[in-house]
Amino acid sequence: MDNRNLITVKHATTFYERLRGLAFHDEGFLAGNEALCFVSCRSIHTFGMRFSIDVAFIDREGEVVRVARALKPGKIMSCTRSHLVIERSATSMRWFSEREMTVIISKDGKTFIQVLERSEGDESLSSV
Predict the structure, then answer these.
(1) d(CA 53, CA 55)
(2) 30-77, pLDDT tens digit by residue?
(3) What whole-number distance in Å separates Cα of residue 95 and Cα of residue 8?
């Protein structure tokens, strides 16, 4: 597995985990390459957040359809095309861009999201 541009995700699955998200946590709750994942999600809030977050909305086909960098506490954001949302504390590290394609990888009990990019002049997708 190519580890470049690979983000480890933690799933928010219970009602309480989904409601809380990253709220009331410290910035160090997630490691540098970790993000929180909400499946079947079209909107998020940053009420109760102590820090800004990076957000990516991804549709059922794996396309990134909306992105926010450094979304401040006290905000609401939504995207009707979204199937899952990925969020992490805001950082200068690489983040998703709209129209990128992603793939979800499960290995050794962990889940990762990797960005796929089109090769220049080529319509096929390749792993970054």
Answers:
(1) 6
(2) 887 889 999 999 999 999 999 999 999 999 999 999 999 999 999 999
(3) 13
What is the C-alpha separation between 109 and 126, in angstroms, rounded?
A: 24
For 1, residues 6+ apart whose C-beta sits below 8 A from its C-beta are 105, 107, 112
The per-residue pLDDT for 88 is 93
- Per-residue pLDDT band for 110 (boundaries 50, 70, 90) equals confident
DSSP 17: H
**Has residue 122 got a pLDDT over 70?**
no
124 sits in which H/E element = none
3-state class (DSSP) for residue 27: helix
User: How far apart are alpha carbons 114 and 77 in whole angstroms?
Assistant: 23
- The secondary structure element, H or E, covering residue 16 is helix 15-20
CB 18 within 8 A of CB 43: no
54 to 46, 86, 103, 113: CA distances (angstroms): 11, 8, 19, 15
